[in-house]
Structure formats: structure tokens, C-alpha cells
Write a structure and sequence with these properties.
The structure is a single chain. It contains seven helices and eleven strands. The protein is an alpha/beta fold. The chain has one domain: Carbamate kinase. A nine-stranded mixed beta sheet has the order 4-3-5-2-1-6-10-11-9, sandwiched between helices. A two-stranded antiparallel ribbon has the order 7-8.
């Protein structure tokens, strides 16, 4: 396999499938099957998942009613709900998992401890990181970048609903051109949207490559790990 240890970043919205909110069980099952396919090949997998299908803290439309900091903490709790759902789906497929949270919730998950997380990975367990960074004003993209650096992941795999990075929104512009590879500096220069700037800068400064790909296409995850050209690679 091309990468030994990966950090998979999933969006909460993707779990909705065709629903308007919540979790689509078919989509959840597909994700779990794809993750199992690379675990079975010996890849060490850590996961960060967003919570936008349940509640989005940053920039929510109710800031005049809900305090920004309170809203961000609500968003963190939403990520834990999604993490628990993914954990359950994986364990039903006999994949050993551990859920670690940046906010202490002893009854349902471990606190985040870097050395313990790495040990779980070395033992072949999938480690899911919930509750973002545990701090308001930071997105789950930033949490993914931070955790990837901490566990020394070889790459961040950012699963989206499009098959890579384009010079325009491919869902709106049929003439949008896809990049197979792009450098961190080119992303800055071209103003490409990949993840929030804090998260992206963390990756650049710590030389963590990012692959943006379509997670909704069955088999893409395994194909990436087998070295096939899937999505867009961002590197120095």
C-alpha cells in the first residue's frame, strides 16, 4: 500500500446522503465498507468527521440567538454523534475501533491522548477523533490537520462529493478544469478552496500532503492506497 498511516477527513453533510439532515444509513454503511477495505490491507486509519448534518457551529444563521462560542461547542457535540454512528457501523463489520474526544465524555469515549491514539493505530484499530480540537473558532478541518500532524500521518485524505480540486465549482461551471496535482503555493496563488486557511497552513508548514477525492464513489479509498491517480494531490 502506498501509505502506511492516513488521516481520513469526512464531512458531516456527506452522511446525509439524499436526506435534508441527519444520517443516511446506506451512505454510512458504504463509508464503513470502504474504510474496512483499507484496514484489511494493513493501513493504519484515523478519522475526523464533521457535524454539519446535525448542527454547524461556525457561521450558523442563528448567531443572533445562539452565542458563537456556544454554537461551536454544539457543533463539536454533533461531531461526536457522527463519530459514534461511524464507530458502530465499523464495529458491526468486525473492525476494531476507538473513539477519542477532545472534550471529556468518559461514558462514551476516551479522552484524546496522542500516545494512546498511536498505540491503537499500531495495533490495527481505527481511531476516530471527535469534538474537533475542543476549542471554539476552529473547524474540523483544522482538527484533522492537527491530529494528522500529531499522529505523524503520511497523508490527509479529504473525502468530498467532488472528484478533486477544480479551478471553478464543477457543480456550477461545466467548463471547470480539474488539477491532478497542485502545490501548496499554487493553492494560495490561485485562491483554490480546499479547507480553511488555518488547517491548510498547518499542513503546509508541517509538510503533510492532502488528497482531495470523491468519497461517495465506492472503491476510491482503496484505489488511492493502491497508488492509483484518484482525486487531486496537494504537496510542496
Amino acid at each position: 500500500m502506498k501509505y502506511k498511516r492516513v488521516l481520513l477527513k469526512l464531512s458531516g453533510e456527506a452522511l446525509m446522503g439524499e436526506k435534508e439532515f441527519g444520517i443516511d444509513h446506506d451512505r454510512l454503511k458504504q463509508y464503513a465498507e470502504d474504510i474496512k477495505s483499507i484496514v484489511d490491507k494493513g493501513t493504519q486509519v484515523a478519522i475526523v468527521i464533521g457535524g454539519g448534518n446535525i448542527f454547524r457551529g461556525v457561521g450558523n444563521d442563528a448567531e443572533d440567538v445562539i452565542d458563537r462560542v456556544q454554537g461551536d461547542y454544539m457543533g463539536m457535540l454533533a461531531t461526536v454523534i457522527n463519530s459514534m454512528a461511524l464507530q458502530s457501523a465499523l464495529e458491526k463489520m468486525s473492525v476494531n475501533t476507538r473513539l477519542q474526544s477532545a472534550i471529556k465524555m468518559e461514558e462514551i469515549c476516551e479522552p484524546f491522548i496522542k500516545r494512546r491514539a498511536v498505540r491503537h493505530l499500531e495495533k490495527g484499530r481505527v481511531v476516530i477523533f471527535g469534538a474537533g480540537t475542543g476549542n471554539p473558532y476552529f473547524t474540523t478541518d483544522t482538527a484533522a490537520s492537527l491530529r494528522a500532524i500529531e499522529i505523524e500521518a503520511d497523508v490527509i485524505l479529504k473525502g468530498t462529493r467532488v472528484d478533486g480540486i477544480y479551478n471553478a465549482d464543477p457543480e456550477k461551471d461545466k467548463n471547470a478544469v480539474k488539477y491532478d496535482t497542485v502545490t501548496f503555493d499554487e493553492v494560495y496563488e490561485k485562491g483554490l478552496k480546499i479547507m480553511d486557511m488555518t488547517a491548510f497552513t498547518l499542513c503546509k508548514e508541517n509538510n503533510v500532503p492532502i488528497i482531495v477525492f470523491d468519497m461517495n464513489k465506492t472503491g476510491n479509498l482503496l484505489n488511492i492506497l493502491e497508488g492509483k491517480q484518484i482525486g487531486t494531490l496537494v504537496e510542496v
